[in-house]
Write a structure and sequence with these properties.
This protein is mainly β. The chain has one domain: Alpha-Beta Complex (glutathione-dependent formaldehyde- activating enzyme (gfa)), CATH 3.90.1590.10. Helices cover 5% and strands 36% of the residues. The strands form 2 sheets. A 7-stranded mixed sheet has the order 6-7-8-9-4-3-10. It starts with a strand and ends in a 44-residue tail after the last strand. The chain binds zinc ion (ZN) (2 copies). One zinc ion (ZN) binds next to loops.
Length: 155
């Protein structure tokens, strides 16, 4: 089966990337770390692998954090492009809002639903996970809340 080619880029247009992946899945993470780094109620993340993503133009800068891993972003406009995690070198998550056609994906699941904004209505039949999700392959989708497991454990 041929790989799909997906394209995307940052807000200022300097960073452009291509993803060649067979059946990438998009998921939403509602954890507090994702809320902080997006400034919104959740993040849409496309689960992919390092070899599947090619940055074809622009300059990427990186921010390293213990709780979220490394966030790679446009060095000019700051748009987040992808996340990589020390504990999971075989996977990266592309910030799906930067795709040219984000509507091509519906969320496979929602992680850290316990942190979801109470006013936010999810799609009918949405699959919710209280914390991190288990992907179909049985692999743990390490959440960018990661080790800290955030507000669910507060009480
Ligand atoms: Zn930019
Ligand atoms: Zn998260």
């Amino acid at each position: 089966m041929a790989s799909n080619l997906l394209r995307g880029g940052c807000a200022c247009g300097s960073v452009r990337y291509e993803i060649r992946a067979r059946a990438p899945r998009m998921f939403c993470c509602h954890c507090r770390a994702c809320q902080r780094q997006s400034g919104g109620p959740m993040l849409m993340l496309l689960a992919t692998k390092p070899g599947e993503l090619a940055v074809v133009s622009g300059k990427i800068a990186a921010y390293h954090s213990v709780s979220i891993g490394t966030r790679h972003f446009c060095s000019i406009c700051g748009s987040p492009i992808y996340l990589s995690r020390v504990g999971n070198p075989g996977a990266i998550s592309v910030f799906a809002g930067t795709l040219d056609h984000p509507e091509a994906f519906k969320p496979a699941f929602h992680a850290f639903a316990g942190d979801k904004a109470s006013w936010l209505q999810l799609e009918p039949g949405a699959k919710l996970f209280a914390r991190q999700a288990v992907e179909p392959a049985g692999r743990q989708a390490k959440s960018h809340g990661g080790k800290r497991s955030i507000s669910i454990e507060r009480k």
